[in-house]
Amino acid sequence: MGRARTITRRAFLISSAAVMGGVAFGSYAVSRPHDNPLAQGLGPDDVAFNPYVKITDQEITLIVPHADIGQGVQSAQAMLIAEELDVDPTAVTLSFGQPSAAYHNTGFAADGVPFQSFDKSFAAETVRGIAGSAIKLIGLQGTGGSTSMPDQYVKLRSAGAVARETLKLAASQQSGVAVADLKTENGTVILPDGTALPYTSLAAAAAGIEPVADVALRDPSEWRLIGKDVQRTDISAKSTGTEIYGIDLQLDGMVHAAVRLSPRRSAATRHDDTAAKEMRGVTDVLPVTNGFAVIADNTWRAMQGALALDIEWGPAAYPAEQDDHWAEVGASFVAGRLDAEWRADGDVDAALDGAEAIEAEYRAPYVAHQPLEPLSAIVRADANGAEVWAGHQVPRFVQMKVAAIVGCASEDVVFHNQMTGGSFGHRLEFDNITVAAEIAVQMRGTPVKLTFSREEDFAQDYPRHIGISRSSGVVKDGKVEGWALDIASPSVLGSQGTRLGAPMPGPDLQIPAGAWNMPYDIPNLRVRAYRVPELAPVSSWRSVGASSVGFFAESFLDELIHAAGADPMEERLRLINNDVHRKVLEAVAEMSNWGSPLPTGRGRGVAMVESFGVPCAQVVEVTMTDDGIKLDRAFVAADVGQIIDPINLDAQLSGGCIWGLGHAMNSEITYSDGMAEQDNFYVHDAMRMNQCPVVETRALENGTDIKGAGEPGVPPAPPALSNAIFAATGIRLREMPFYNHIDFA
């Protein structure tokens, strides 16, 4: 390990400790469980074995605390509990539960420390353990970073097993039959004579028993659900249009609100609400942070009233024009803005000295989240606190933010998390909820439903961060010999942290994500990250830093391999430094029949990027036509350590690939006069159906850790496509979106 790399890691740990506020903790504090949130309000005959399983004489309720933002995690969580509890996950009540420290997400620890995923050294495991302990102590509950399954894989199975064995003990005491002679099946305890005792009939007896501890989890050979092709619990409702999302909710006595917020995130310098107040159905216009809310008797009238507001806005705090954003990023490759040197293998300067270097600059634009369901929230505030209905990924922060606005304690904010029609990082922000709370405190006792118009949703989005990479590389004897990779972008974590009141002072691992952890043993490799002063405020976007950096790294690596005269697949395989990643790359080579001849005008491209601990490799095949580039096929291979839901895993990997391809081809946010120029889908296209290739996926299980799949399918898609286009046309694309440089059929 180089000295620079050691300093970087030390700096990372020191800054993390600063963010933690100097919290010191011991083994007792770490091992002590948080209070069970289900214990409050239990009836005398109800039982909550742990924070995840509650049974009454009427129903079985499973708490699945990770937010479902379309990735199917509600179903997957239920499956993990049901596997051990012996219930049908479609026949029980599923609830996101109330926010609680008991639902802390230790999955964040693995990807939040600067060690490669396959590094199981004492130092790496120690730091991961410290990070996990800190997350538990502060009770960080959240969904994101493809962490739901890593976090819940053991927790939820254990919760189901404890409940099952405690119910068997209750049945034993009631029937006089030894526990060893009892079985469970489909929500019942089975006696030797075949009598089936429903779990609900045993709730009262189980309530008086200390939950059975130290229960062994079932061997995979006994699994009925995990790893099997099963139907998601939400698939029927979503297929028939009967699923209820946050935007669908209605409460008695509810009023409707729409907003005009500053597209420059600034205060109004002048406003006139006369026309809005005269419109049919409009009852009031209220001030909110950086804008105004129109109250009406339905959403449409509220939105029309908002459009009728005559407002002049103050200037933006960031550069008004897009060219100035790019100029600021380009000016950040200087020592004073060096965030960290994340990789220092060999001697890059010596390798480049006197050599004929290959150089290139790559760019990635701002991109909107654009989920199908626009932002919405319902808030009711009164003298005792508040109640909130919305879909969100960090529910305890929702409580804190609303409490600060309403003027109450966080525990006096009841939050009902909702099914969400997409997020991609959008639901990590709070504007819809905080603005709804600001309205609600001006109308205490009345439920206020705030719905953003599509245009307002775009205008108030915190997009993916802008970024530039600059690379210099050298090849020797047909091989990649040296590479200096510099990346500059604003800090996503710093921007988000500022809005949370916890700015990040130290290195941001997301700036070089997808590059510093490349699984390649290039003899001389250096990766540096430069932190651009904050421009337009940005947020996490599906796969965060790797969504851009994967394009930077794998596209330039392809340039180096081409300059060396080597095969793109064979040279990557030669450079791979571990078996797990190698098998992923070998799998996608086999799937795509790499090396087989293609006719003139067709090309294949390959890319491999690790994000959130998951190695994912993709091959894209394209054809050059008279109408432009046609995407023919895409092949995706990834290693998630353990396949929990094969059908949903295929959906996540193929969906991630399509998401990455579509945005690389068609999407960008640009600023003019301090405002985002794109305000709807038609000017911020993703993948069109006629453009979509046939996608084939393969999941591997060679990794030792459980990993998530919501994001890793995204980063390899843009470079695999750009590399395929080069193979077919000889045109090297170095800037997204590609439609600015080439046509697509």
Structure summarized in a few sentences:
By secondary structure, the protein is of the alpha+beta class. The protein contains 21 helices and 27 strands.
Please tell me about this protein's structure.
The chain is of the alpha+beta class and 745 residues long. The protein is 32% helix and 22% strand. It contains 21 helices and 27 strands. The strands form 7 sheets. The protein has a 7-stranded mixed sheet. A 5-stranded mixed sheet has the order 13-21-20-19-14. The protein has a 4-stranded mixed sheet with strand order 1-2-3-4. A hairpin with a 2-residue loop joins strand 1 and strand 2 (53-55). The longest helix has 28 residues, at 148-175.
User: What form results from the Cα inertia axes?
Assistant: globular
Rg result = 27 Å
Largest sheet: 7 strands, mixed
SS strand fraction: 15-25%
Give, in spatial order, the strands making up the sheet with the most strands.
Answer: 10-11-8-18-15-16-17
Task: Assign the structural class, choosing from mainly alpha, mainly beta, alpha/beta, alpha+beta, or little secondary structure.
Answer: alpha+beta
Can you give keywords for this protein?
745 residues; alpha+beta; seven-stranded mixed β-sheet; five-stranded mixed β-sheet; 21 helices; globular; disordered N terminus
Q: Topology of this structure?
A:
Layout: H1 3-19, H2 27-31, E1 47-50, E2 53-55, E3 60-63, H3 73-85, E4 93-95, H4 108-111, H5 122-138, H6 148-175, E5 183-185, E6 188-190, E7 196-198, H7 203-207, H8 235-240, E8 255-261, E9 268-272, H9 274-277, E10 282-288, E11 291-296, H10 299-308, E12 310-313, H11 322-330, E13 338-345, H12 348-352, E14 358-364, E15 376-382, E16 385-390, H13 395-406, E17 413-417, H14 431-441, E18 448-451, H15 454-459, E19 467-476, E20 479-490, H16 492-500, E21 524-532, H17 546-564, H18 568-575, H19 579-591, E22 602-611, E23 614-625, E24 628-639, H20 646-666, E25 671-672, E26 675-676, E27 694-700, H21 717-729
Parallel strand pairs: 3-4, 8-18, 16-17, 20-21, 24-27
Antiparallel strand pairs: 1-2, 2-3, 5-6, 6-7, 8-11, 9-12, 10-11, 13-21, 14-19, 15-16, 15-18, 19-20, 22-23, 23-24, 25-26
